[in-house]
Amino acid sequence: SVQKDEDLPWWLIGGLIAAAVAVIIIIGVTFHLLPAADPEVSCVFRHSCLLPCQFQSGSGSVIRWSNPSSAGDSVVHSYYDGQDQLGQQNQKFQGRTSLILDQISRGNASLLLKEVKIQDEGRYKCNISSSTGYKESFINLKIDVSDIRIHQDGNRITCSSEGIYPQPELTWSTEPPSNTALQNRTTVHQTEEKLYDISSSLTGPDGPDLIYSCSIRTRSNRRTETLKKGVSAAISASVSALICTLHLRKHFIPEDLLQHVCSNVQFSCWFSSPRVAAAQSGNMKIKLMRSLTFLVFMSFWKICEFW
Questions:
Q1: How far apart are CA 26 and CA 157, in angstroms?
Q2: CATH of 146-231, one of 3.30.413.10, 1.10.10.10, 2.60.410.10, 2.60.40.10
Q3: How far is CA 89 from CA 21, 134, 286, in A?
Q4: CB-neighbour burial class of residue 10 (10 A; exposed 0-12, middle 13-18, buried 19+)
Q5: 129, 189, 264, 281: which is deepest, by most CB within 10 A?
Q6: 151 or 235: whose pLDDT is higher?
Q7: Which InterPro entries does this UniProt record tie to the protein (predicted)?
């Protein structure tokens, strides 16, 4: 019998190895050439926002923030010769930008953008040159959903938010999930600034341990606020509403202490004047138990000691 030689010829083996190496090189070069996605930062409309930019610190730093677009590379903020240079700054950014000057020597060129507008959304470029070299980085600014207000009036719960872009969607949920369908009515209004205000009210099933969640989302972000439906209180789960409720009582927190606590913090209270009057007359169920109120007050008193 004749034994067949099953070994592959050397030239075929070499060709396969060469082809495999070529494929690996092509894949590696392709991935190397693909640009990495720009990092994103979410900013709230009409709030301040920090656009990060780090570099290796060195002497003679020149920092230039710009906003690339089809209309050109408009200047957002410039810094050189040890000071801000805003002569070429785009008009729409005037009075709204600043660097953290005492951090530049540490390699921090982050830009603080104040009073964020819808038109600010987009791509930003940070160029830095110094004695250590040159660096260029990009970041995308997205407009986030603004603060959500949620409150309870009797058996009706209302959730709302203002100044949103683009057009948002609002959804309700409960924890634990409710077997009864949540009957809600949602309205969306577009303002003259092309922003959107959204509000939704629902009448849900009673339950001492039922937690309602209101979620507002756009194509790029999402925010959720919760409210626990209880017997002794009908307030938002947020601390700001709780402080406002305690302020209405005026039995535990004096006015000067409230001013001290709130001096550097933005609190929003969902009580309008008619609701305040109703709360003071006891028509709304916001009378917290004295023990709970006292504990909360003591907690804020401790916080004030550090402020």
A1: 59
A2: 2.60.40.10
A3: 51, 22, 51
A4: exposed
A5: 129
A6: 151
A7: BTN3A2-like_Ig-C, Ig-like_dom, Ig-like_dom_sf, Ig-like_fold, Ig_V-set, T-cell_Activation_Regulation
